[in-house]
User: Which sequence fits this backbone?
């Protein structure tokens, strides 16, 4: 095996998805602790600093136009080189959050044991399901009163449509939490407060059949555990690596990120069950990083104007195959040109770092003089294949946008089109109006502020935003259908996107169903496919 293939095989590139407050930051922090990147919990940008960053965005970091929130954390752990992709939540939730998942090979889904599946978990999971990537579930906060474990699994299966397979099982929760039972080894890991993760706690293990267990776990709790194990063994799905690989079965783990309990065991199991960089589909078939020697990558995110003085942009790309070397030449397939990949950088826990070498599975940021678009392919292969495009994700907030000064029509159209091309916003037009009045759709509301700010500062255009009540958008998949013929509900609006694809906007999901009922054969999609 060549050194390059060895390096690629070591990579584990994944995203952590969760609803805000489920414990994503805390879990990431514990991973870094085990990776030796930090010595003490609390050194990662925690929630407090993340909040700070959001408010800073308006005051101090305005010139950036956008806050730098999406980053990758890289560290070595055991034989693996781990790349954790951050998926911004809270107000920073945007299309980038979804696009980041296009660069991951698997996902860790953190669920708050007291709350279960929440809105943002659902949305992010949908993207993972669309890609059929493996999803691992960590049910967090077991040190607090949690919901019934069977109910939680039921909810995941029903709401997300993925069967689950518990790898371990909790003994109680909250003040009665005694630890977790590892099903394969039939051992119990005893819960103890590891000083809130300020050190890597030593976990005490004891065999389920050891009589000494009575010292740690009350008889009643043991009886309940016994019953639950029998139920699980009888009714639960068996672990099946092939189903996990296909994203059709989610291994489930219980623990407490804050107390640093169950994290190390989760990390070890997860790393052995998840995957090295996966092959990717291109217009010339699957490109397998274990076979393809040439460098190839695709752009999944563009960060604009990080430094206004230079009007620079950074294109973030996921390397799919081969080896990257700073300053190397490669072919930009969509631009049809050879380019030099300069100023490569990696976003690290503690800021940006210049890098000179990277491998399949890694994420790098490249200086972009304004030539890249989301989804573009860069490769040194003579075959010049291009990777499958990144879908457009359904915006959830809409506004009608008008310019204040109609004399600046040209700047307005240029600005709004450029910002849309970068993927920060989506623009739609009604069928019978011109570009003076357009509808803007965004995934996260913060993007509206970004739009106003950037048009004012970069294009000298003032706009008026009038929020619209639409919440649901569907792309019309039928290619042979005249959009005029679609009979919808009274609240429905017909629009087209930048590429001229027809779409329907709805105020509520009931209208979506009604419209489907009224138009036989109509196919609507939540993703705008290339
Ligand atoms: P997020 O990134 O998913 O938004 O969640 P984050 O890790 O910031 O955690 C949200 C809150 O939940 C934090 O408390 C955190 O300490 C707490 N938390 C995370 N994991 C656990 C756990 O296993 N058990 C318990 N009991 N709490 C957990 P906070 O008070 O809101 O913030 P902070 O002041 O502690 O930072």
Assistant:
């Amino acid at each position: 095996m060549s050194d390059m293939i060895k390096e690629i095989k070591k990579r584990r590139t994944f995203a952590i998805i969760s609803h805000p407050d489920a414990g994503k930051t805390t879990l990431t922090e514990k991973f870094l602790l085990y990776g030796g990147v930090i010595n003490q919990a609390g050194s990662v940008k925690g929630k407090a600093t993340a909040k700070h960053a959001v408010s800073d965005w308006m005051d101090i970091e305005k010139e950036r136009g956008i806050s730098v929130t999406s980053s990758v954390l890289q560290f070595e752990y055991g034989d693996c080189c781990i790349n954790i992709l951050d998926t911004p939540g809270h107000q920073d939730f945007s299309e980038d959050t979804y696009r980041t998942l296009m660069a991951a090979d698997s996902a860790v889904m953190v669920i708050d044991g007291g709350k279960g599946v929440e809105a943002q978990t659902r949305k992010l999971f949908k993207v993972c399901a669309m890609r059929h990537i493996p999803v691992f579930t960590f049910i967090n906060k077991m040190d607090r009163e949690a919901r019934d474990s069977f109910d939680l699994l039921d909810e995941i299966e029903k709401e997300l449509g993925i069967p689950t397979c518990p790898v371990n099982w909790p003994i109680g929760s909250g003040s009665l939490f005694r630890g977790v039972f590892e099903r394969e080894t039939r051992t119990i890991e005893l819960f103890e407060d590891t000083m809130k993760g300020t050190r890597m706690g030593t976990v005490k293990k004891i065999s389920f059949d050891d009589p000494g267990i009575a010292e740690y776990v009350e008889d009643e709790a043991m009886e309940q555990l016994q019953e639950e194990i029998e139920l699980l063994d009888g009714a639960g799905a068996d672990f099946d690596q092939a189903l996990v690989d296909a994203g059709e079965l989610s291994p489930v783990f219980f623990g407490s990120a804050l107390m640093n309990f169950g994290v190390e065991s989760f990390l070890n199991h997860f790393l052995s069950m998840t995957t090295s960089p996966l092959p990717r589909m291109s217009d010339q078939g699957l490109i397998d990083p274990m076979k393809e020697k040439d460098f190839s990558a695709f752009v999944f995110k563009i960060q604009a104007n990080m430094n206004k003085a230079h009007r620079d942009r950074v294109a973030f790309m996921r390397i799919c195959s081969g080896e990257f070397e700073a300053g190397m030449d490669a072919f930009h397939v969509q631009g049809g040109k050879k380019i030099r990949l300069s100023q490569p950088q990696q976003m690290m826990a503690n800021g940006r770092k210049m890098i000179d070498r990277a491998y399949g599975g890694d994420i790098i940021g490249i200086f972009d003089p304004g030539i890249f678009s989301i989804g573009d392919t860069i490769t040194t292969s003579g075959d010049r294949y291009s990777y499958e495009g990144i879908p457009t994700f359904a915006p959830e907030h809409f506004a009608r946008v008008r310019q204040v000064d109609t004399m600046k029509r040209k700047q307005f159209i240029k600005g709004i089109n450029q910002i849309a091309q970068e993927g920060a916003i989506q623009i739609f037009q009604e069928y019978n109006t011109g570009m003076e009045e357009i509808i803007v759709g965004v995934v996260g509301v913060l993007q509206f502020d970004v739009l106003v700010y950037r048009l004012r500062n970069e294009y000298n255009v003032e706009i008026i935003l009038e929020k619209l009540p639409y919440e649901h958008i569907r792309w019309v998949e039928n290619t042979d259908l005249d959009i005029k013929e679609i009979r919808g509900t009274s609240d429905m609006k017909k629009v087209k996107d930048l590429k001229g694809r027809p779409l329907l906007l709805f105020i509520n999901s009931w209208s979506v169903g009604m419209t489907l009922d009224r138009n036989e054969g109509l196919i609507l999609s939540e993703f705008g496919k290339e």
Summary: DSSP finds twelve helices and 33 strands in the chain.
